[in-house]
Amino acid sequence: MLVKRYEGNPILTKDDVPYPVATVHNAGVVKHDGKYIMIFRSHKLNGRSILGKAVSEDGFNFKVDSEPFMTPAADGPFKEYEEYGVEDPRIVFIEGEYLITYSAYSGHGVRIGLAKTNDFKTVKRFSLITEADYRNVVIFPEKFNGLYARLDRPHSEISPWSVWISYSPDLRYWGESKLIMKPLKYHWDEMKIGPGAPPIKTSRGWLNIYHGVFPTMDGCVYRLGVALHDLNDPSVILAVGDEWILQPEEVYEITGYVHNVVFTCGAVPEEDGSVKIYWGGADKVMCAGTANLEELADHCVYNSRKPL
Ligand code: BMA
């Protein structure tokens, strides 16, 4: 098994949150000042989402702040686009600051907001960096030829939901977009794919842990897979593991708010070559597991399917 589930799963549930929520899931996680910081999504009891913060010494035992970290903007240009909630945060550290990309929902659709923080005490919204309908934006933790790079997943009925790359000089204006990976017909990720955790740098390439969706008579199944991007040119996908690395198997992944879902927004590489992967179980609880970065790269390379 490539991903070993933490024996104490789920690591965080609504019962750990000191304000009323129905779920705790789809969290971005980073290491900051020797501690693990988790920014997680919760459904409030009206069905709309907010973001909370939890802190841990060991990456598994988290304590939740007494107040939410981000709620929909109450005024300014973000208000109109966050009316229905803020969801699925990803965090990356680049050039001295943490960037948080999150889904902003409103009656105008779903688009991506970018917020910045240095300390996770205060957070400042920077820009809405896509129009509707986009989800799953992850920013690379390094620049390429002086440009920021991001993976994203536009909504399209013509070409199935696929992964694109775009570049920006300033995090505000994005362009040079290119389609780089598509779902594969009659395969576990045939319906949709989307970036998951921000890409992780390894000696063999950027490791991209993504989610794939398969439609069944009993609804959709969300699983995780892994792809390897070229270190110097992340628009080049070197290999994609043909098989998933994680699928809903435990009770807390099979039943919950939405059943049969494992969905990642964050993974933390460690100095010993392991990686802690965090995922939402059935859109209701937070789970963690560990994997080995070399083994994940092997998984991409030794039984690879084509990205396009
Ligand atoms: C996606 C997003 C995720 C969610 C997943 C499974 O479309 O809404 O936040 O985890 O569906 O319900």
How would you explain this protein's 3D organization?
- The protein is mostly beta strands.
- It has a single domain (4-305), classed as Tachylectin-2, Chain A (5 Propeller).
- Helix content is 5%, strand content 49%.
- It is built from two helices and 22 strands.
- The protein has helices at residues 251-254, 293-302, and strands spanning 4-5, 25-32, 35-43, 49-56, 62-64, 85-94, 97-106, 109-117, 124-128, 134-139, 148-154, 163-168, 175-181, 192-195, 200-202, 205-216, 219-229, 237-241, 262-269, 274-281, 285-292, 304-305.
- Strands 14, 15, 16, 17, 18 and 22 form a six-stranded antiparallel sheet that branches. The protein has a four-stranded antiparallel sheet with strand order 1-21-20-19.
- A hairpin with a 3-residue loop joins strand 20 and strand 21.
- The radius of gyration is 18 Å and the shape is globular.
- The relative contact order is 0.15.
- Residues 26, 87-88, 222, 258, 261, 263, 280, 283 line the site of beta-D-mannopyranose.
